[in-house]
Amino acid sequence: MPKEYRTIEEVSGPLMLVKNTSGVTYNELGEIELSDGSRRRCRVLEINGSDALVQLFESSAGINIEDSKVRFLGHGIELGVSEDMLGRVFDGLGRPKDGKPEIIPDLRADINGTPMNPAARSYPEEFIQTGVSAIDGLNTLVRGQKLPIFSGSGLPHANLAAQIARQAKVLGEGSKFAVVFAAIGITFEEAEYFIDDFRKTGALERTVLFVNLANDPAIERIATPKMALTAAEYLAFRKNMHVLVIMTDITNYADALREISAARKEVPGRRGYPGYMYTDLATLYERAGRLKGSDGSITLIPILTMPEDDKTHPIPDLTGYITEGQIILSRELYRKNVMPPVDVLPSLSRLKDKGIGEGKTRADHANTMNQLFAAYARGKEAKELMVILGEAALSEVDKLYAKFADEFERKYVSQGYTTDRSIEETLEIGWELLSILPRSELKRIKDEYLDKYYKG
Amino acid sequence: MAEKCGIIRKVSGPLVIAEGMRDANMYDVVRVSDLGLVGEIIEMHGGDASIQVYEETSGLGPGGKVVSTMEPLSAELGPGLIKSIYDGIQRPLDAIMAKAGTRLERGINVPALSRDIKWEFKATASLGKVSGGDILGTVAETEVVEHRIMVPPTWDGELIELNSGSFTVEETIGKIKLHNGEIKELKLMQKWPVRVGRPYKKKLSPDMPLVTGQRVIDTLFPIAKGGVGTVPGPFGSGKTVVQHQLAKWADADIVIYIGCGERGNEMTDVLNEFPEIKDPKTGKTLMERTVLIANTSDMPVAAREASIYTGITITEYFRDMGYSVVLLADSTSRWAEALREMSGRLEEMPGEEGYPAYLGSRLAGFYERAGRVVSCGTEDRVGALSVVGAVSPQGGDISEPVSQATLRIVKVFWGLDSELAYRRHFPAINWLKSYSLYVDSMSKWYGDNISADWIPQRTRIMALLQEEAELEEMVKLVGMDALVATDRLKLEIARSIREDYLHQDAFHEVDTYASLDKQCTMARLILKFYDMTKAALSEGVNINKIVNLPVRERIGRIKYVPENKLENEYNDILENISREIDNLKKEAAENA
Fold first, then answer.
1. Is ipTM over 0.95?
2. Choosing among A279, A298, A399, which should be mutated to test the B contact, i.e. which has the most B CBs within 10 A?
């Protein structure tokens, strides 16, 4: 029976100081028992002699310095995991939320995980067909990749994420597939949208949901993504499943991190976020990947809303430095009714080169991809020039580029949320569009592919 | 001897404070708790030592013991380094995987150099007087690298015994009698504290380029052998690809690649790819000359701080053998962040953006360990240590402290530009912002070794790009039609320089590397085209006709022509240019 302490000295925001402890260790899980018998969880943030500084995972309301008791449990925060989690809904701290009984855990895993040995990773290179041209054709997703969606308030990132979860498949293979979904401080409606979509498409039995809603305590959010990743690691590396993890919204997670940092009076980095936010986010994102000796994989799609659509805000900025690319949604395209409004130029998939080409997609994929990017960039420049100087100021070639840019947005990007395009269809549409331009402009494509596919 | 033991008092993330450590030295390596976690003393207050722990500290609490090893953090230097992948404190990751599986568990103890492998040592030194740095003999470590076993730098005296044969790194290969009469055993392995630069006789100024095969770098902003450069850029602008390209193609004998706080998959990529790629000079794989240090972003923060020093110490060791060595550090920003995190936990007064006030001096101390030097030893050996550090400025804004502190030290600046990256112009090195301060000191080398045209061509290209930027401004205001024909031609040529010359496809089998000769030929072709078309313009040829010349497509494709077919292609294109321009001239004369 662990010792009970009645020595809570201070409660301030999400932090609490417990005096005269002994044998307490860093990162240990604690349990606070209130006078009414209810229990809350906390973890040790710092231990200095006999003083333990702990961080609460739930609200501090009702904690009484006089009669509340604290117990330290001798281990870190753990999540009981088993295959029965599929099809279930949990709250942000991993307790069942769907009214069904607790699961019987196969094993209990520390939610912080342990870092993968870089020498033990195997490189992600299996093409995932999402059925979305802007992703498959230009920013190809591969198994084991971490590819975030940078969105803004009010943009349809949920629709795109649900579309990916629904359509994603690896060509020519029928392996075990699961989705882990972590809702971090999102609204009830948004969470319902996902759950509904999973239910309608029958994906729910293959899904584990962790839901922390906007009105749940903010500090609980610190644990939610870690819970989800722990479940995902179990399914991927113990049960050899291919797991797609969707986490939304990372911005809320970072804000909770800031709240705790501020309460600890740490020296803030940019915009008040703690200096260790890069490391903290990395310990989440880097849990995606593939390991040697295991057939499973974790593909991670975190979603974050950029405050003021600003890509240089610390949250998207640090995320971009850790993840292997990003899919950026654009408000301008959204207003133009381009669905999904993927802004392909600043979007990027760093692992695409290993996932495309002969035997994976098609030999001409890399060349056409680069040409589409270059042509669209030039087309957009031409259109800007046209706005200032009028169409007459453009050269003949630039007019073609401007036309290309328009058609590209309309035919290639804007496909709606229900169209599931095969990679061949996507490549065909690409060639159709490139055929608007004269052949001499297509410098980035090898002659053999031009001979085979160019239709101009 | 009784173990000198301290007791943990405080644990806060990677920082542990222990009492009763009065006997330990600053920067001693300590073992923390029963798990034996590795740490380093970074501050002393009376008997209290502040320790940065290189492993995850969960589960540590007051009362745990702390034992000092009474040695500073050191790197093991000897045969077996090449082809290894280490973490930030030189633990071999592949051996750890063999021992503990795919995850990095704590408290695993594996020596950096294998104690089992027997290396074939060939003694070359003769008995008698030797001084620190003298070469004792060689070990053929890989097919490419001849590992030269040296007398440790601080030992001077008389060599009294030396044997050839098969040895492990710990076995004695000979004996040396120091000046004070002490007899020391020589081994294949030596140790060196990572935070102290290895000594050398004298530093030389750099006068020859480190050829990288990347046109924008070699032609416009070259780095010298023994030089220091930096690549700052926002995410997605291709920092890592630039670093990988340098690791692959730089004409160095040894490459040390540090992945400091970066993605795990990037290290996997290097591990998968380098054993497959052939070095154009040796014909062997690139892995045969590479050492990797991987402290990825999810691995403990404190070890990230050490990784840079571990890396440069290994690099210096190879430099001392007389090799040209390149150290690539991706990314120094993550190293600085580790410094900031520890500084915050130590409750130091922060400087700018929370970084410690000593950020600048630490960075300078690191970069100054680069250079071309005459190494220690009786005979003069020249080795070069070049460093290229990536910087990841937040939001791509290089006014932040790490970029600024770096720019004050380095001589080459390759500024990456997200605008170029969006247009898929790679490498996305901005030609207007970047600079290299080595061009002047190396101009003689280019004249002697490549071509007398090299420097004039470079000057013309830079001028054209600069003029293009000015003309572009004008076009935005008044439109293309308002430009005179010569300016329009300038714009076209500048575009050709950008697209046909500076743009380089890292994933194309031919284009990924261009020798200096190829670069020279390509630049000459574009500039010749410019000269000839300019002359044609003055003879009344219409600019639109010139813009649409079919030969331009071939100029654009010359980068994909292999080096052995280059000369024929060049001559052929040149002939075509003259013919097509002559036709235009004739046409123009007839119309007039």
1. no
2. A279
